[in-house]
Amino acid sequence: MQSASGEILIVGAGIAGLAVARALQERSVPFSVVERRLVPTDGGLAIVLPGNAMQALATLGLREQIEAIGHPIGRRQYRAANDRLLCEIDEDAFWGPTCRPCCVRRSALLAMLADGLPHHSVWHDAGVAAMVSHARHAEVTLTNGASLSARLVVGADGVHSTIRAQTFVGQSGVTGALMAQSSWRFMAPNPGVDCWSLWTGADGMVLLVPVDGDAVYGWVATTRPHPAGSPTNPIARMEHGFPERVRRALRHALSQEGSLYHSPMEEVRLPTWHRGRAVLVGDAAHATAPVWAQGAALALEDAIVLARSVGEHLDIATALSDYQHQRWKRVAHVQRLTDAMSRAAKLPNLIRNALLPVIGPRRYRQTYEPLKVQV
Ligand SMILES: Cc1cc2nc3c(=O)[nH]c(=O)nc-3n(C[C@H](O)[C@H](O)[C@H](O)COP(=O)(O)OP(=O)(O)OC[C@H]3O[C@@H](n4cnc5c(N)ncnc54)[C@H](O)[C@@H]3O)c2cc1C
User: Fold this and answer.
1) For ligand 1, which residues put their CB under 6 angstroms from it?
2) Which of 49, 226, 230, 281 is the most buried (most CB within 10 A)?
3) Pair 128, 163: CB distance under 8 Å
4) 8-176+266-372 with 182-264: one CATH topology?
5) Domain ranges of the chain
């Protein structure tokens, strides 16, 4: 790999990194991407894209492509563990026909974002080990010992960002999420679910979302602490408290060794996202518990705004402070509403289920209405 001295170096080829690459390409700004993995570890799973993610993908010129690979969600239903409907939200009516939320396989989303980028611009198996910011450039050392220089380094390297650690020494910014400390994700045959469906029980919650006619994407979070041991134990315990179609999906997940992805629920909150020749985007800057499924949306929006700022301001310091200024309020809004819903999720079951018919639709509007404004 050659030195990238006049270029922007993007670290990480996840949703944020590939979106930054696409947005820079549209503005003819030269870039390279370095990614430590050969293939994504969670590519077999799916992801929910709310209306503002669809809007951002349209801005990146990908409206037709995402509509072709995503499964429209249509409605959102919150249910009690005994299957009683607590509230329903008509997402189609809320977002309108051009930004209908969808669920898509992560591998398909990443392939779509990477499609059309110059072949030589994305380097896999190229992890960054260190970075030093100088007055006019930054130097990056890869784990294989190679070094690169760039006029700007974009840290799109996720929750445990190396670029963040190298730039804001001693300030990790990572905390456990308020709502739950861990969650499990899986894919299963669709047990008869036709929209975004969340069941809340005494021990936790289960979300099932159709990905296509045959499969659902599942997400389970335990709201009570559980004893140390096998991470699948809480799900096996929860299996008994839910309706048959949920149990069928959970049983499938438990029976397929290796198909349950256990992830700690971590957040990143920082006082600033840039310093010197480094800037953070996506989870590296502001990972947020997936309460409102805003991770991908915020990452895509960051990419659009960063590329615009870098394209409009020759001076890097001005471009980065413009980027942060434009993004800060919107991200803070998502963080605030994530905390509000996380606190509601931790209420005793009876109280939460009594409140959800009122606070569910209200919080939905409160969260998403400001996000309808295009970045
Ligand atoms: C359980 C769970 C469920 C979620 N559900 C949703 C959802 O439904 N909808 C939604 O929008 N969001 C969801 N999210 C959040 C979403 O997954 C993230 O916000 C999104 O993937 C962020 O993308 P990213 O590119 O910033 O980071 P990542 O996806 O973490 O990508 C970072 C990339 O950088 C690479 N990398 C890391 N370190 C280095 C290094 N040193 N050198 C080179 N490369 C490096 C990694 O290999 C990776 O490819 C969920 C998160 C969790 C944990």
Assistant:
1) 11-17, 34-37, 40, 47-48, 127-128, 156-158, 162, 183, 185, 219, 263, 282-284, 290, 293-297, 299
2) 281
3) yes
4) no
5) 8-176+266-372, 182-264
Nearest ligand 1 atom, CA 283 = 26
Strand order in the sheet with 122-123: 122-123, 31-34, 8-11, 152-155, 278-280, 274-275
pLDDT at position 94 is: 98
Question: Could you say which DSSP state residue 325 is in?
Answer: H
Q: In sequence order, what E strands does 162-260 have?
A: 174-176, 182-189, 196-200, 204-210, 215-222
Look at the alpha carbons of 67, 112, 192, 183 in this order and tell me if their dihedral is positive or negative: negative
Q: Phi/psi at 193 (nearest 5 deg)? A: -115, 130
Tens of pLDDT, residues 98-132: 999 999 999 999 999 999 999 899 999 999 999 99
- Residue with CA at minimum distance from ligand 1 atom 31: 14
SS3 104: strand
CATH of region 182-264: 3.30.9.30
Q: What is the pLDDT of residue 42?
A: 77
Ligand 1 centre distance from Cα of residue 248 (Å): 28
Contacts of 294 (CB under 8 A, 6+ apart): 50, 52, 288, 334, 338, 371
Residue nearest to atom 27 of ligand 1 (CA): 158
- C-beta of residue 367 within 8 angstroms of C-beta of residue 291: no
Low-confidence ranges of the chain (pLDDT < 70): 1-6, 224-233
pLDDT tens per residue across span 128-152: 999 999 999 999 999 999 999 999 9
CATH number for region 8-176+266-372: 3.50.50.60
- The residue among 362, 361, 331 whose CA lies nearest residue 268 is 331
Q: Given this model, what pLDDT does residue 1 score?
A: 58
125 three-state secondary structure? coil
Q: Hunting for tokens 């996720």 — which residue is that? A: 158
